[in-house]
Design goal:
alpha+beta, metal-binding, zinc ion binding, zinc, globular, 10 strands, zinc-finger, 4-stranded mixed beta sheet, 272 residues, MYND-type domain-containing protein
Length: 272
């Protein structure tokens, strides 16, 4: 089964465009139209030069970089999800400023673009302070903050000697505080075609339900494992590392039943 992922977002307004416009120079930046592309140019131009240089690298590494970038665009939705939950942004938003996710990829040269790489391993590593990063990175973060967002959650894709940067814009504080413990399994399952990315949308119904029912205090957050067959997890506390409250089996079963009813169209997609 071919892997499926979410449609890419415009790099300026973060909406999913009906028609995609790519930067003609770097072939990486995506926009919903010429207006967004023009407005974003001052922020993009330095990164564009770097991306274009990477794309012009000759030989095997250059080809590998191009393939990695295409794979990352195809799977951008689930990679962004993985970065967010690897860094635990919903519960600890400041981690986007201190850490990043590194994904080591395995190359499958004969496969189709969506299957050309698989995730071999993952690591959370420290980021240098923002003031030590390139000016274009600081400008991009400042632009997101000016729009009411938090910044950028970073990921580095590595395959042999090739490395491709990836950033997920965090456009505001999350209304839910539920972390995915098995984010790496989900990333592998979606990119390798065992799970459709649309199946993961269950989380948009599950997380608000957990937040409303169990996270009555700001310091509480949920930590769950998700699969198509159901959820399990517990409630934790930032204030008390020893606090652990398992999610009741009855809640997990009823939540899964509600998800099934929503997917069948029997009830509207509004968690209660």
């Amino acid at each position: 089964m071919a892997p499926q992922s979410a449609k890419p977002e415009c790099w300026r307004c973060f909406q999913v465009p009906e028609k995609i416009f790519k930067c003609s120079r770097c072939k990486t930046a995506i926009y919903c139209g010429k207006e967004c592309q023009k407005a974003h140019w001052q922020l993009h131009k330095d990164a564009c030069a770097i991306e274009a240089e990477m794309g012009n690298v000759e030989g095997d590494i250059g080809q590998l970089v191009k393939q990695m970038r295409k794979w990352a665009v195809i799977h951008r939705g689930v990679i962004d999800l993985a970065v967010s939950h690897a860094l635990q942004v919903e519960a600890f938003p400041d981690r986007i400023f201190t850490h990043y996710l590194m994904l080591t990829l395995k190359h499958h040269p004969s496969a189709k673009p969506a299957s050309r790489f698989s995730v071999f391993s993952a690591a959370i590593l420290p980021l240098p302070p923002l003031e030590l990063r390139p000016p274009y990175v600081r400008a991009q973060v400042a632009d997101i903050v000016d729009k009411g967002g938090l910044g950028i959650a970073y990921c580095s894709l590595v395959c042999g000697a090739a490395q491709v940067p990836h950033g997920a814009a965090v456009m505001g504080r999350f209304e839910t505080r539920v972390l995915l413990r098995n984010w790496l399994d989900i990333l592998k399952d979606v990119t390798e075609g065992r799970v459709k990315v649309d199946d993961v949308r269950q989380l948009t119904w599950i997380k608000p339900r957990i937040t409303d029912k169990f996270l009555d205090k700001e310091e509480k957050y949920g930590a769950i494992n998700w699969s198509r067959s159901g959820i399990s997890g517990e409630i934790l506390s930032k204030a008390d590392p020893n606090f652990r409250e398992p999610l009741p089996d009855s809640f997990c079963k009823s939540t899964q039943r509600i998800v099934q009813l929503i997917e069948s169209g029997a009830i509207p997609p509004c968690p209660t």
